[in-house]
């Protein structure tokens, strides 16, 4: 269980997160929704230790992690896949992936076992291990970025906009990879502009606004919530099975009414 209690955090110009409360169940996939600037990526950065909260508590199980460093949090089993551009273009596929196993670099056998396990999910690792990352397509790079985060076999994976800029074929591959991670029982927090896709991949949904949780529910509750449907999924549109076309998110209105209100 991952829990954020009354978290305030920002970048020096004031708090972006304004008393955030979140509970994430083990082995769940939570899609974080909200308008631009709501603080979705900031939540991921707080959990992974890239930003230290000014106030509040972050718990992994019963362990407080809000004052730990990013490497310490990684070691506890929380890995973040940042938005794209996080690979070393001149290094090979294999070298990039091995960087994800830096903390276990001296345990050669374990490192190779992990490489093989990740290669099951990301075939590129066996197909083109020596190709420089800079020569890969956008979709292949995204697969590699996610694969690298799996090298420590994290219990919790934080994904920031995994579908961003992908063509339909790459999107299908990345979607399948996230589904495999979900089936392996990983706890996943997903920030996704493609709301329909994000909710389809998720067990839970959480809508943020102004640095707070506005409402939470199961993915189907959030999908079927009339306000969310009209804001993000296109009101009065029948649900399409085509999840590859991102809807245009609109800004949420200031008034709140929801399934379960956040920040109780
Ligand atoms: N590195 C940074 N330094 C200063 N301000 C930042 C930084 N990163 C984000 N912000 C600001 O924090 C606020 C929340 O940003 P965040 O990236 O968490 O939003 P978001 O909900 O993920 O939206 P988006 O979809 O636009 O990324 C925004 O006003 C943004 O300008």
UniProtKB/TrEMBL annotation:
One of its GO terms (molecular function) is ATP binding. Keywords: Amino-acid transport, ATP-binding, Nucleotide-binding, Transport. InterPro entries: AAA+_ATPase (IPR003593), ABC_transporter-like_ATP-bd (IPR003439), ABC_transporter-like_CS (IPR017871), BCAA_Transport_ATP-bd_LivF (IPR052156), P-loop_NTPase (IPR027417). Signal peptide: none annotated. Pfam families: ABC_tran. Residues 237-264 are annotated as: Disordered. The keyword Manganese does not apply. PANTHER family: HIGH-AFFINITY BRANCHED-CHAIN AMINO ACID TRANSPORT ATP-BINDING PROTEIN LIVF (PTHR43820:SF4). This is Branched-chain amino acid transport system ATP-binding protein. It comes from Kibdelosporangium banguiense.
């Amino acid at each position: 269980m991952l829990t954020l209690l009354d978290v305030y955090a920002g970048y020096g110009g004031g708090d972006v997160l304004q008393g955030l409360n979140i509970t994430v169940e083990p082995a769940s996939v939570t899609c974080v929704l909200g308008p631009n600037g709501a603080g979705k990526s900031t939540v991921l950065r707080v959990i992974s230790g890239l930003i230290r909260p000014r106030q509040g508590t972050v718990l992994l199980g019963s362990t407080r992690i809000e004052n730990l460093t990013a490497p310490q949090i990684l070691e506890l089993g929380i890995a973040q896949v940042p938005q794209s551009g996080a690979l070393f273009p001149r290094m090979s596929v294999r070298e990039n992936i091995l960087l994800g196993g830096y903390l276990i670099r001296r345990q050669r056998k374990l490192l190779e076992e992990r490489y093989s396990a990740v290669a099951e999910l990301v075939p590129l690792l066996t197909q083109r291990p020596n190709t420089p990352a800079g020569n890969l397509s956008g979709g292949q790079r995204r697969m590699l970025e996610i694969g690298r985060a799996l090298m420590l076999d994290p219990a919790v994976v934080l994904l920031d906009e995994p579908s961003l800029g992908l063509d339909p074929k790459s999107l299908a591959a990345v979607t399948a990879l996230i589904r495999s991670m979900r089936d392996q029982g990983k706890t996943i927090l997903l920030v996704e502009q493609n709301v329909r896709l994000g909710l389809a991949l998720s067990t839970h949904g959480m809508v943020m606004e102004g640095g707070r949780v506005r409402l939470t529910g199961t993915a189907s509750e959030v999908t079927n919530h009339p306000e969310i449907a009209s804001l993000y999924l296109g009101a009065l549109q029948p649900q399409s099975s085509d999840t590859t076309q991102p809807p245009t998110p609109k800004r949420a209105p200031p008034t709140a009414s929801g399934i379960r209100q956040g920040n109780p």
